[in-house]
Design a protein that fits this description.
Blueprint: H1 3-13, H2 17-24, H3 30-43, H4 46-59, H5 65-81, H6 89-101, H7 105-121, H8 125-134, H9 142-158, H10 162-179, H11 182-193, E1 200-204, E2 207-211, H12 213-221, E3 225-228, E4 233-236, E5 239-242, H13 247-259, E6 264-265, H14 266-274, H15 281-297, E7 302-306, E8 310-315, E9 321-325, H16 333-339, H17 347-354, H18 358-370, E10 375-377, E11 384-386
Parallel strand pairs: 3-9
Antiparallel strand pairs: 1-2, 1-9, 3-4, 4-5, 6-8, 7-8, 10-11
Amino acid sequence: MDSLITAAAQALAVGDALGAMKRVALRDDPPALALRGIAMAQLGDLARAKALLKSAAQGFGPREAVARARCIVAEAEIALVSRDLTWPEKALEGARVTLEKRGDRVNAAHARNLQIRRLLLIGHLDAAEKLLADLDASPLPPAARAGHELARAGVAIRRLRTGEAQKALAHAAEAARLADIPALAVEVREAANLLKAPAARLIAAGGERLLRLDEVEALLASETLVIDACRNVVRAGAEIVPLASRPVLFALARALAEAAPADVTRTTLLARAFGARHADESHRARLRVEIGRLRAALADLAEVKATSHGFALIPRRQRVVVVLAPPVEEDHAALLALLADGESWSSTALSIALGVSPRTVQRALDALQAAGKVQFFGNGRARRWMMPPVVSFPTTLLLPGPLPSE
């Protein structure tokens, strides 16, 4: 490897993309193309970076399997950042195995980190946690170790283990400090801010307040009877009754819990559970049936008692009853939550992450666009969706004016 390639690689390792470009900008040999691709990715030109890395991988000979595998790992990272979830996962696993066999443990561990981050993005927590347990992070340099700790924190946050998440984020912050890469430090800081942000709303006794993640963890660990509208379950400590597949029962349970210890009229329950504006005898008969099913489902946790006006939820063991709801409830909230990360998503990637059909996602995106909540750029397969940059503010005002000498 010549001195310019070595110097460019060292510049990239500390996040100096421009310094690396100065050394290899005019070269078109495979190592230079690979370094230029990584530099372009750090500068934000992901499309150009992907093309350069693909050219570099094709240019390496059969005896340069490690170099080709590194290019594949870099391509996978670009695909993850650009939310291209259709990128072939088998190619990344093949590259990781090659790197592992050839002794490049650092890049093999980085490839594993990318696999874990992708699993987190699409909600496969069990698989992500298993890969984390099998990954030895000791040989990683500071930058890669920070990525590993961020992945650990991501799993812990989604598992509501805030103490473990805080430790992982502290380790990530220390690794980012040692790496001395400003962008990495910002990423760690933004992840840490999630622990301080509102994670849910607590609704009880006619009032509500916002909860942080650690407060949600403490609530779910207590003996409080929680109607969890974030996961559509009813729980008290270790006892959990899943109602995600029974939306009518959950709607009734939530309506009763929001009014507890008072009762809820039959008219209100019909409107909440069935959307019935004008109830007739068939609606009332169906309500009786569904209330009977709810009694059976919650028999160990609470009693659903008939009153002169409607029904009331009476918890067993004199538990307190609360409702845990998302911080914001509106149509297509899950879709907006994904787009809130600031990245541009394809509709296919959104459907993979949400586990719904592409057509369902497209209808939701069209509705959100009509409401001015999302916007797109590109056409056809290149179309990407994102949140508006600055709401109701002319972005041209953010551009600098001409210099006095111009």
